[in-house]
Automatic annotation (TrEMBL), chain A:
Pathway the protein acts in: Glycolipid biosynthesis; glycosylphosphatidylinositol-anchor biosynthesis
Protein name, as recorded: Glycosylphosphatidylinositol anchor biosynthesis protein 11
Record key words, sorted: Endoplasmic reticulum, GPI-anchor biosynthesis, Membrane, Transmembrane, Transmembrane helix
Subcellular location: Endoplasmic reticulum membrane
Biased segments, Basic residues type: 1-10
UniProt biased composition (Polar residues): 12-30
Species this protein is from: Ogataea parapolymorpha (strain ATCC 26012 / BCRC 20466 / JCM 22074 / NRRL Y-7560 / DL-1) (Yeast)
UniProtKB/TrEMBL annotation, chain B:
KW DNA-binding (keyword) present: no
Localisation per UniProt entry: Endoplasmic reticulum membrane
Membrane-traversing stretches: 349-368, 380-398, 404-432, 453-478, 498-520, 566-588, 608-631, 643-661, 681-706, 718-737, 757-783
Recorded family membership: Belongs to the PIGG/PIGN/PIGO family. PIGG subfamily.
Name of this chain's protein: GPI ethanolamine phosphate transferase 2
UniProt keyword Transmembrane helix, yes or no: yes
Length: 261, 784
């Protein structure tokens, strides 16, 4: 056997570039995200520019996620009757998410404009309704992705569909509030969001919230095959709980990171 | 009379065809039981249990497969067979030759049948039944005191087609008629005859056994004697089929040993842990009942005294005059004894552990020396190995290991594809999902919430089923054929043309033989061909007849035999040609020696693997090829670590997605005798290995296909993979051994952890033979 080969590993990663990017752009102050958007030609890879991101705020933390998990278990009793709990909780969950959307929109707006506190106007309400509709339809591709990543085919489809709906409102919906489809370069932005090309993602509270939901959902599947014989070890209870807790944790991490930086 | 794999519902349920047995029960001649058979539910350990009354030794499960081994004899261990022999009984034995292996010298007259030729359902049983004419005749009956019959056909049907196989009802009727024959010529005529019909173990829902699922441990047991009429049992058969196998009383199979000895007036074998079946007590007078139980109790008492090395008298512990306290004592001692009957040789265990730790340390040292400067890469690998290995501490994670591999694979594939927008990502992911859905594995909840495409295809109606199966098999084989000859268009008119023509001819010949064997095995396993070709469409019966005419026989088994021996001949020539082609080209100075070398090697080996794969898993190879090709597009050859990890992931994932698990019951024996006319331990062992480890072999060669390049650095790349594989096996193996040692008193040590060790052993064998041996040969012959 020949001697151990010495190879120079060529890494082309965004993470190496991103710290320098973020060093140059101290973006914790309100109002800065707008200034950031735009190409940073000084960088090695000009096509990877930082996405505009909302400045972190306590109000952006999705506390309702935790409330939903609690309610699913103790009010709707999801462990014993999965489908009926999912049915009866949907309206409440969507209302809560809508409310969160309202808060998020106003928070972002107020931070951006740095003006006096203002409520949402008619156009924003309209945007919120359309975003909710889009998120509802986005559940279809998410459902397919869930199937591809191992959700049961042929059985438990209703459960998976509900999981897809919840996930859609945990990932697509909050991102839509920040990365508006009405923005001029929204197509490019969304392609990058969907292919996970987000530099300095660890400071992006909303993006972390969505990622946290995905990661939490992914890890939520682990307890199901274990032989603890608990009634909550069912599809999709653990995944739902994981997604909600994950989305809160993601948002919290983003918030704390920016506070203590 | 032992009927192999006779599950309780085959005897007693309303779907059972054994109507005479039901009559016997209803008339009070017979008592039915569901007998719990201790895992491992394989014939050899079960026979030991049934004759000696002891709980099994796990190594027996392995010896069960190594048929020529003689170390499994019971030698001087006490059993009721030995007791009969000592009392001067004449014992005649016909059937499974496992009995002869256990008791080489006790039988007066024998005729053994090999138990591993599973594709034969009829001859194996006729070889037993043909002796009955004489043995049951008046003259014959004078020449034996005990007759042991062991029928294997039902077990073979189970292995081939499962409990709902088309051949099952006919076999049950055949067994029923033999029971009727024996009953009428012996039990009916002589009051002092006891006739025992039993299964040595059951079978699970796919017809295999070896593990500890409810179907496998619920064997049927039927005691028949004219004397039982006195008991006035209330048993009525048949009983509606139920998923818990709850038919009549539940007893343990080892209880048969003291019962049989007592009923026949023999001494109870000394190692027996069973207890007398108390519902037979009314056969005896009040006084004798007590004696019967005391005899059993004293025998168990000796064992108990031995286990706590303290001798006391029975009277000092219980009131021997009361039946209930005796029964209570028997029940308790059975419980204690079965718990303490495992004995460990700690010295050997520690030697093994130390040896393994040493190997693991060496491999880690090599691994880190190789990876210095790239420690993050090594760290990720090691983290994955350890994360995987930690799961060995949980029994359910071993039972459901396929989830683990699916999880790791999706994480890996997501990390590879996440930033790519290529169409191959979608192909890769969809193919992986189809692979998972094809024949999903797992020991619990296997069927519950997962659609299995293989099951769906196999259960299609006769109008459409054969067409779909033929299409799937043919398209898989055609793709391979197409791929190896680089498509249909001939580019240029260089030297390649002749070669490509030869390659095409040999591959298509192999493909057509494989197609015939797989399609025939589908037809014969799904439909009952014995009673004519009524169930199958016209074109299928024409096809069978056409093949039959060419080969001069219509028996499916003989046809398969001939086709397989033809296949092996062609395959050996082809593989030798492809392996030696670069060398020969170099010698004769022909251009481009290594052209397409890895591709032809991979495809030709795949032909062998496909021919050894069950027909419903054949289309998986199409998915494997698609996964391989799309992965090739996504990851450059310079990213060796990703390719090595992917190989390990896919080896394991596809192994489990072939339907295999970590339970002995999922070992597939259906293809172990393809083309063999007699039992040959080495060849059928090899075929069994190829059949069960087809996917790992494929991926091992796929790594070579991805990395063998004409740049002279092939050994470096192979070394990388071998190092990763070695580290993987040494780290996970060490954790597995530690976990088994740690959990050696765990409830599942014999049913979950020990089989995993055996499987792990086979994985290391695969690593040595294929990952190391075959890869080195193929790499060495790659001459540019």
């Amino acid at each position: 056997m020949s001697a151990t080969p010495k190879k120079v590993k060529k890494t082309v990663s965004f993470s190496r570039n991103s710290p320098s990017l973020s060093d140059r752009n101290p973006s914790t102050e309100p109002g800065s995200p707008v200034a950031e958007s735009g190409f940073d030609f000084a960088d090695d890879e000009p096509q990877i520019h930082e996405l505009p991101k909302p400045s972190p705020a306590f109000l952006l933390l999705p506390f309702h996620s935790l409330a939903i998990v609690y309610a699913l278990f103790y009010h709707y009793n999801i462990s014993s009757k999965v489908i009926s709990a999912l049915h009866s909780s949907t309206l409440a969950v969507l209302t809560l998410q809508f409310g969160f959307g309202l808060i998020t929109l106003t928070t972002i707006k107020n931070k951006k404009r740095a003006k006096k506190h203002r409520g949402p106007n008619g156009g924003e309400l309209m945007y919120l309704v359309i975003s909710s509709l889009i998120s509802g339809f986005a559940a279809v591709p998410i459902f397919l992705v869930l199937l591809v990543f191992g959700a049961p085919i042929g059985s438990l489809s209703e459960e998976t569909a509900f999981l897809a709906l919840h996930l859609s409102f945990l990932t697509v919906f909050p991102l839509l509030l920040v990365y508006k489809f009405t923005d001029p370069d929204s197509g490019d932005t969304w392609i990058r969001l969907l292919t996970f090309q987000v530099p300095a993602f660890y400071r992006n509270q909303i993006y972390l919230q969505a990622m946290g939901a995905l990661v939490g959902c992914w890890f939520g599947v682990i307890p199901i095959p274990l032989d603890w014989d608990r009634d909550w070890q069912q599809w999709p209870i653990t995944l739902l709980a994981g997604a909600y807790v994950g989305s809160f944790a993601g948002s919290l991490i983003g918030y704390l990171y920016s506070i203590f930086e | 009379m032992v009927i192999d794999a006779l599950r309780a519902d085959f005897l007693f349920s309303n779907e059972s065809q054994m109507t005479f047995v039901h009559e016997l029960i209803n008339d009070g001649y017979a008592l039915g039981y569901t007998a719990y058979s201790n895992p491992p539910t394989v014939t050899l350990p079960r026979l030991k249990g049934i004759t000696t009354g002891s709980t099994p030794n796990f190594i027996d499960a392995v010896l069960n497969i190594a048929e020529e081994d003689t170390s499994s004899t019971l030698g001087d261990q006490d059993s009721w067979v030995k007791q009969m022999h000592a009392s001067g009984w004449k014992i005649n034995m016909f059937g499974d030759d496992t009995w002869l292996k256990l008791f080489p010298s006790y039988f007066a007259k024998t005729d053994g049948t090999a138990s591993f030729y599973v594709s034969d359902f009829t001859i194996v049983d006729n070889n037993v039944t043909r002796h009955l004419d004489y043995e049951l005749s008046k003259e014959g009956q004078r020449n034996w005191d005990c007759l042991i019959l062991h029928y294997l056909g039902l077990d073979h049907i189970g292995h081939k087609g499962g409990p709902a196989s088309a051949s099952m009802p006919a076999k049950q009727r055949e067994m029923d008629s033999i029971i009727r024959r024996i009953f009428e010529s012996t039990v009916k005529k002589d009051e002092n005859t006891l006739f025992v019909v039993m299964g040595d173990h059951g079978m699970n829902e796919v017809g295999n056994h070896g593990g500890s699922s409810i179907g496998e441990v619920s064997a049927g047991l039927l005691l028949v004697s004219s004397k039982f009429k006195k008991l006035q049992s209330e048993q009525k058969a048949p009983i509606p089929r139920n998923p818990d196998f709850d038919y009549f009383g539940h007893i343990e199979q080892i209880d048969l040993v003291p019962t049989l000895s007592t009923l026949l007036g023999l001494k109870i074998p000394i190692n027996n842990l069973g207890t007398f079946m108390h519902d037979l007590l009314p056969l005896y007078t009040e006084k004798d009942r007590q004696n019967v139980l005391i005899k059993n109790a004293l025998q168990l008492k000796v064992l108990i005294d031995k286990s706590r090395s303290k001798v006391t008298s029975l009277d000092s512990e219980i009131d021997v005059s009361s039946l209930s306290s005796l029964l209570h004592f028997l029940h308790d001692s059975k419980g204690t004894l079965s718990k303490t009957s495992s004995d460990y040789n700690y010295r050997d265990i520690f030697y093994g552990l130390a040896g393994y730790t040493f190997t693991a340390l060496i491999s880690l040292a090599l691994f880190f020396t190789y990876h210095r400067g790239r420690l993050s890469e090594a760290g990720v690998d090691l983290l994955f190995f350890i994360l995987y290995a930690v799961n060995f501490f949980g029994s359910s994670m071993i039972e459901e290991e396929h989830h683990l591999w699916w999880f790791f694979t999706t994480v890996f594939v997501a990390s590879v594809t996440v930033k790519s927008q290529s169409i191959y990502c979608t192909t890769l992911l969809v193919c992986l999902r189809l692979l998972k859905a094809w024949n999903n594995s797992g020991q619990k909840n296997n069927i519950k919430s997962n659609m299995k495409i293989a099951t769906y295809v196999a259960s299609l109606s006769p109008d459409i089923g054969p067409v779909v199966v033929a299409f799937l098999i043919a398209s898989t084989l055609a793709t391979y054929c197409f791929y190896v000859t680089e498509g249909v268009i001939v580019k240029g008119k260089g030297d390649g043309t002749t070669l490509r023509f030869l390659t095409f001819v040999s591959t298509s010949l192999l493909c057509s033989i494989t197609f015939s064997t797989k399609f025939l095995s589908y037809l014969s396993e799904t439909y009952d061909l014995k009673s004519g070709f009524k169930e199958i469409p016209d074109w299928c019966s024409k096809y069978i007849l056409w093949i039959g005419q060419r080969l001069g026989t219509t028996d499916i088994n003989t046809v398969n035999q001939q086709l397989f021996s033809l296949f092996y001949k062609v395959w050996l020539v082809t593989i030798a040609f492809h392996l030696l082609k670069p060398l020969a080209f170099k010698i004769w100075k022909l251009p481009d020696p290594a052209h397409n070398y890895t591709r032809t090697i991979l495809i030709t080996f795949s032909q062998l693997l496909i021919s050894q794969t069950n027909f419903n898993n054949v289309p998986i190879f199409l998915l494997l090829l698609a996964i391989l090709l799309s992965f090739q597009k996504l990851v450059p050859v310079s990213n060796l670590n990703a390719i090595s990890l992917f190989t390990i992931l896919m080896q394991n994932l596809s192994f489990f997605q072939f339907g295999f698990t970590n339970s002995l019951s999922s070992v597939d024996l259906t293809n172990s005798f393809n083309g063999l006319s007699s039992y040959n331990m080495i060849l059928s062992g090899l075929l069994t290995f190829v059949c069960n480890w087809a996917a790992p072999i494929f991926w091992s060669l796929a790594y070579l296909h991805l990395t063998l390049k004409p740049d002279g650095r092939n050994w470096e790349r192979l070394y990388h993979r071998l190092l990763v594989t070695l580290t993987f096996y040494s780290v996970s193996g060490l954790v597995l051994i530690v976990s088994c040692y740690n959990l050696r008193f765990h409830l599942f040590i014999w049913t979950v952890f020990s089989p995993k060790i055996l499987y792990f052993l086979s994985w290391t064998a695969c690593g040595l033979l294929v990952d190391f041996g075959l890869s080195c040969i193929v790499t060495a012959l790659y001459i540019k």
